[in-house]
Amino acid sequence: MKKNIFDLYMNKLLELPLWIKQVIYVKLKEDIKEHNCEKILETKEDDLFALYKPVLTFNGRTELMQKNCGLDANMYSFLNLCNADYSILEIALSMYLTMEEAAKYFMFCVEQKYLERPESDQAYAMAGFISGKFKTGEYFMHNKKLSFNQVQNALDEQCRINSEGKQLKYAQVLDSMNLVDKNDTKMIFTLQEESKKRFILDYTSAPTASRAYMNLEEKSSEEVEKLKDENKKLKEKLVQLLKIVRKDV
Question: Coiled-coil region(s) at which residues (predicted)?
Answer without folding.
Answer: 213-244
